[in-house]
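Researcher: Go.
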Amino acid sequence: MKIVKISLISLAAGLIIIQFFGIKKNQSSGVQTNHISTQFAVPADVENILKTSCYDCHSNNTIYPWYTSIQPVGWWLQGHVNEGKEELNFDEFAQYKPRRQFKKIEEVEEMINEGEMPLSSYTLIHSNAVLSSSQKEILINWTKLIRGEIKVKSPGSAPAEVEHED
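Model: Structure:
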């Protein structure tokens, strides 16, 4: 019985101690000079969809829910944000090379078509981030326009099949 009590006290103490090791929040101020909109048109309806369904993990500005202040939940969520930004960051998109821009926009369309984005673990809590059929269509049409613009700006550098540049 004494071992159980010591274990529970140790566990409680550990949980209290880790609360002092919060996350570095993914929030920046000011204009994002490399945002996708500095290079390509992002209509208002597309921007609204991106803000609601994509930017928390794929930009430099995450809106954090209250429970990210509780560790280890905050660490887990920050890991998802970091991974999402590594994969695609709309705030850094203009600095990608044309081949990478083309591939990333192609992957956006693929993920939407396959229902892989936004992640179900995200939409479970953020039900407003679930994409409707019309929102999916808007985003897919926009990705096709962007890919066409990349081809025009960089003829020959963004063919239909490009090698990964991550």
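Model: The chain has one domain: 24-153.
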